[in-house]
Amino acid sequence: MTSSPGSGAAPRSSSPSVEAPRLEPAGRVDAQAVLKDFKRRGMVGHLEALQRIADDNGGNRASGTSGYEQSARYVEEQLRAAGYNPVRQTFTFDEGRRNRNQAESFNILAETGGSAANTVVVGGHLDSVEDGPGINDNGSGVAAILEIAKWMKEKGTDPTNRVVFAFWGAEENDLDGSRHYVDELSETEKDQTSAYLNVDMAASPNGIRSFHDGDGSDFGDGGPEGSKEIEDVFFRFFEANSLPAETTPFEDGDSDYDAFLRAGIPAGGLFSGDEESKTDTQAQAYGGTPGGDLDPCYHEACDTLSNIDRALLQEMSGALAYVTAAYALAPGN
Predict the structure, then answer these.
(1) d(Cα 241, Cα 219) in Å, to the nearest integer?
(2) CB neighbours of 105 closer than 8 A, spacing ≥ 6?
(3) How confident is the model at residue 6 (pLDDT cuts 50, 70, 90)?
(4) CB of 68 within 8 A of CB of 127?
(5) Which residue in 171, 172, 229, 315 is the catalytic one?
(6) Higher pLDDT residue, 1 or 185?
(7) Start-to-end C-alpha separation, the chain
(8) Distance of alpha carbon 266 from alpha carbon 117, whole angstroms
(9) Do 67 and 139 contact (CB within 8 A), yes or no?
(10) Model-level pTM greater than 0.70?
(11) What pLDDT, on the 0 to 100 scale, is given for residue 25?
(12) What's the pLDDT at 49?
């Protein structure tokens, strides 16, 4: 997750320029069975690999570095082994907001079969900050997405709607990878993107379970039409599994949902917390230390393999898998 330049919700289009398809998420996906599956899956193995990569490359996996390149190769190898055909989408970005030197990075994209007329994008950033390995921020999101992609293949899921698994570059700079992806979409492709599901920090060691406030009923400014439905499906997962959870706002420039919101694409996603302090109420609901940072190693060198809550990672990965499957199997309009 990048440091937000300001506060408040992101400016966004209230609706796409053309009436976009809206999906009714499939209710036949079993939330309890999905959580059971993800309590046995290997997300931590991916984090161990990303930690080794950072250790071998100066302690970080920042875009434009050898650590990022090796992280990308790892992701690509995992996707190919699962039966996907990952591609790189290259872009240039201003490296450092002061010196404005041009650098090159890339996103990794892998897609399922299914109708492109109702595309679901599931994304999280692959890069870390320069100051640390980024195992929670956002290795945890990368691990979740990789395991969801593998899980769908292993389950023999035949998506009604195309799913694009996206691993964004240069998020920690200025959300450059996801902005490039959305900028490259034609108006028709934007209108055919029915949902964007974001995961940015899913295993904070003093964390919470939170999902984005799609309709703005809790924080005053919701996403485009369709975002409320995404919020509702996340809620359905946590309720079915008797897991306390809460909503969190969309923040201007804070994560990769930003470009999708601005394009009028329905969005939602997961967040387990960064430098905010845990409240007494949250400590009662989730455990942990009241008054302590949700992630005391946010953007620090100590964001290592020891900086994650493994049970929370299982639960949040399961939640994202459930919502992904619900949208992948949703009947189109």
Answers:
(1) 25
(2) 63, 64, 68, 90, 91, 92, 93, 127, 169, 170, 176, 177
(3) very low
(4) yes
(5) 171
(6) 185
(7) 34
(8) 15
(9) no
(10) yes
(11) 76
(12) 98
Burial-class residue 241 by CB neighbours within 10 Å (0-12, 13-18, 19+). middle
Convert the pLDDT of each residue in 217-237 to its tens digit: 999 889 999 999 999 999 999
Give catalytic status of residue 77 as yes or no.
Answer: no
Residue pair 260/214 in contact (Cβ under 8 Å)? The answer is: no
Q: How many residues does the chain have?
A: 333
66-82 and 140-154 helices, crossing angle to 10°: 20
Label residue 281 exposed, middle or buried (CB < 10 Å: 0-12, 13-18, 19+). exposed
Average pLDDT score, the chain: 92
- Residue 89 CA to residue 259 CA, distance in Å, equals 16
Q: Does the N-terminal peptide bond of residue 60 adopt cis geometry, omega within 30 degrees of 0? A: no
Contact 1, 248 (CB under 8 A): no
Confidence of residue 254 (pLDDT cuts 50, 70, 90): very high
Identity of the amino acid at 213: D
Spatial strand order in the sheet of 101-111: 87-95, 101-111, 161-168, 115-125, 193-199, 267-271, 210-212, 246-248
Instruction: In whole angstroms, give the CA distance from residue 325 to residue 28.
Output: 10
Cα(216)–Cα(235) distance, integer angstroms:
15
CA-to-CA distance for 198 and 58, rounded, in angstroms? 28
Residues 6+ positions from 73 with CB-CB distance below 8 Å = none
For residues 145 and 168, what is the distance between their CA atoms, to the nearest angstrom?
12
The pLDDT of residue 15 is 39
* Residue showing tokens 């939170």: 210
Instruction: State both tokens at 75.
Output: 């992701």
How many whole angstroms separate alpha carbon 170 and alpha carbon 13?
A: 24
Q: Which of 50, 78, 85 is nearest to 151 (CA)?
A: 78
